[in-house]
Amino acid sequence: MLKLIKNEYAKIFLKKSTYIILGVCLLLSMGISMLIQYAYNQIDEYYYYGELSIEEDMSHYKNSEYVYDQIYYMECQMFIEMGYEYFSDVPSWVWDGVSNALYNHYAYVVASQMENRESAEMELGISLEGIDVEYEKKVSEEMLNAIKAGDYLVYNKSCLAYFDYQKENDLPFDQVQYEVYKYIVEHGISPEADEKKMFAVNMYASAKANYDTLTKQRDAGENVTEYQLEKEKKIFTIYQYVLDNNIDNYLTETLDYGDMYEGKTESNTNKFITAITSNTMIGGMAGIFVMIIAAGIIANEFSNGTIKFLLINPVKRAKIFWSKYITCLFLLVSSLAVFFVVYFLFCMLTCGTDGLDGVYLSYVDGVAHEESIILYALKQYALSGVSLLTSITLAFTISSLMRSNAVAIAISIVIEFLGATITMFLYEFGHDWARYLVFANTDLASISKGVTLFPGQTLGFALVVIAIYMVIFLLTAYDGFKKKEV
Amino acid sequence: MGTALKIEHINKSYGKKQILHDVCLETNTGEVFGFLGPNGAGKTTLIKLIVGLISLDEGTISVCGHDVEKEFEAAMANIGGIVENPELYKYMTGMQNLKQYANMRNGVTKERIDEVVELVGLTNRINDKVGKYSLGMRQRLGLAQALLHNPKVLILDEPTNGLDPAGIKQLRDILKTIAHKEDVCVFVSSHLMSEMELMCDRVGIIVRGTVKSVQTIEEMLKSIDTSTATYLYKVNDAEAAKIMIGEKYPAYEIACDGDSEFKLTVTAENANELIADVNALMISGGIRLYGVQRQESRSLEEAFIELTDEGGTQIA
Description:
Chain A has 486 residues and is mostly helical. Chain A has helices at 2-13, 16-44, 51-62, 67-81, 92-113, 117-124, 133-148, 152-168, 175-187, 195-219, 226-244, 271-278, 281-297, 299-304, 307-311, 317-351, 373-401, 405-428, 444-448, 459-483, and strands at residues 250-253, 265-267, 359-364, 367-372.
């Protein structure tokens, strides 16, 4: 049997066309990855303001009656004063700080000075009842001075003090921001030095605040589902883990169970991590390469006439059949490995090696779990291999039934590309039986995360359906090959 | 000498068309067996059945005592062959092709491969791609492939196709040597009697799916009628000559061929004298004799064509 498999390998790899197909598939997968990266970079460039547009904006805001516009005018003035030429130059923490300070404090000042106080209150959605205008002014100046001096920690301390003041006086305040400031002050984080950490702090704080609010609401007898609570807990547990362990590069799922959306992943935009985990074409192209080989592995013998010399050997047809199938399987595994390694090196080359130590964070039974991002990417990749296994078995079956390799390859690839679309159509038109189609079950990576086209599809169900189809495919192929008159 | 192939009561149809009708054959080791038939007689079908490429409708085939259907691997271990054209992997070299087949059979050593390559005369070109081979070279490579594992039965479907005259002679010598020295049964199919005559010990003739005769070459030659001699006469009045001769020599066979020609058949023994008498009779009877020519005796080729020709020559 081993010798037979060796023979099949020789037949595949002594052929020049094999290398051409392999090269094309590799190039395509890399090329698509590059296009995706290029597109991402293009999107970044949309956020660009020119000097003229800002001046135009400011002249418009200056004469506006609206409080918001006036705050915005002051914001612009402040940035120019601080030496930022364009808005795109302003670091996000400065922007946030100035906006907060101006909104939270100048708003009151402006509103209290205005003749028509009621309309200002309406516009801002706040009440100026019982507000100490002098105190507001003092605090806001303190904050702005801290920002101008570039000391975010001092700014945060005054924010926190201000929130404490509001809390004491039973005034409404921003629960999420409160948590953020609290965390920054407690842990002495300087945002100008660590923007990545700020992202995690924000994520943590907002989830924590939401969780606390939801808990309170539940305790007060309001209708809060366990699912809502769990979702927030998941987020803050994971980000707390990120903060506690000083993790720089990570990827995590903030996906909702049972959501109809594609699995949305969030990372702190490490290019390497994004590249290595987001390219689904790598497995796909490896699959197409093996599919072309599998579709030809039997049909080629017929179209070249070599089948006669193959079958007059003292080897049962069954053995030849299975050695060909096993060759396809070996080839699938090895080309998946080759494509992954090549893509991995490609990512390192184009995105740098920063993300190599990155981790994937998951939430299991109330605890955050950490695993190497490379291992995670490999696992996702391996799961996509299962769907490729069915495609390749199908291609192999068609190969066994056809005498022309070109027809076999064409049919396999058409089915591969149309299968998912047809399933989608059937779903859209309400044919629930389509869940028993193999194409509705091959995306194990998504199914394992609970993202399914048909409601209630489980991993176990998918695996059973795939197994049944594989058996049917292989039996058909085997029967066809064994009975074929040469 | 032992039984190599034993084919018993075989029937095979493709769809509604029956190709083979109750075929029985037995061949021995140590002989070159020629399997002769016109195009479409079912030669290739029978060969495909022997090597298990297609399945039997009825009957049994055994190779060195192993049933082809029940003990496929044991039966095939004793068979080497070329079926139809020698179609090999064109993108591989001759040697890589042979290694493919060596891997599928037991006990084929590197030395054996070299030996076989030498035997078929491909040593110089064995590392070239098969795509660049001529038909004759591919035929030789096919033969090398068939001989790799020292099979007891060698089955060759029209092996001289594409070979030059020197190659055909060489092949003939190789096959005879293998059969007679190494006690192998060489089973060769062909539609050319002349080829078989030089190569084979025994010949089986198949016509439209039925085996007509199985004879040694000697038996065939003997069976050809050499006891009579036929002469072609050119005269001014064939009909009158026929009547005249018939009256005097009623035992002679006369066939008119047009107004001025007829054929006369007499016993081969002292034919010259008999013919001289006939000539004298005709001349004295006033018939103008323009010429007499002795016809060649029938060859095996004619015998074969006669045997396979019945029922018309159209190719269905």
